[in-house]
Amino acid sequence: MKRLTAVLLALALLATLSCAPAEAAWTFTVSLTELQSDHAILVNRDHMLKESDKPGDLVAVPVKRASSSKIEMREVASQALEKMFEDASLVTAYTYRVQGSDGTWKEKQFSSEGGLRLVLKSGYRSYGTQKTTYNNYLARNNGVDDGISSPPGASEHQTGLACDVLSVDYNANNQYMNDSFYQTPEAQWMEENCYAYGFIVRYPADKEEITRVPYEPWHLRYVGREIAGYIKNSGLSLEEFTETWQAALAEFTAAGGDVDAQLLLESTRRANGFESTVLDVYGEDGDAEVSLSF
User: Fold this and answer.
1) C-alpha–C-alpha distance, residues 215 and 225, integer Å
2) Tens of pLDDT along 31-79?
3) pTM of the model
4) Structural domains in the chain plus CATH codes
5) N or C terminus: which one in the chain shows less Cβ crowding within 10 Å?
């Protein structure tokens, strides 16, 4: 009876929303549910985390690591990363690009029965750890903050949703990470495919003025598949995407849109909600019967 009541309420909501004026409809490609999730958070020097901020669902990431130290991420990001590592290992042939001494780019073929070999360099870092990392970097860089290392509170690693991923060979042959990593099949495969697992390359080469962080082809950020797909297709940075969806939300509410009602509507469309199908069967009232499945 409770389930039937919930279904009837949801149907009533759908009927109500269907009568709402067109200008109050949520038409943005990404659902409000995803946009208001905690993995959509924007973290940078203008949107900083507090020292006390720490995810409550950190887990050890079960993938190949660059060292024996445990690396943690939020559970949803860890699961997505594990799947990406598994799929990368199945890629036995891949065409990528390398830059010659004359500056021109040429195609090169990767071929290995072992597949692409990814390795996790880092994941979650606490505020305190980031503070130490930042200060150590400044000491090595003559006190110059060039954006390569973020100050504490401005690092995405504190969210538990960001990670640094290299190839096994690159990690073994390079003391420090730099944009030469892009010229590996692993980097280019990740750039092309990470969105399918809910990740984005957070600091693209053509968005440095916006992100204020130099290009980092190894730095992935989990945002969920809806958002990652939008960013992949649009070519926006996370900063630009955040500005875009917040403008869409402001327009929606200004037109009389109801955020809570929209979130409830979206919840009925999820896999754990219900689907209605109009049957070729008619009741005594002459109306087609509706089948509800959960």
Assistant:
1) 22
2) 999 999 999 999 999 999 999 999 999 999 999 999 999 999 999 999 9
3) 0.84
4) 2-20+257-293 (no CATH), 50-236 (3.30.1380.10)
5) N
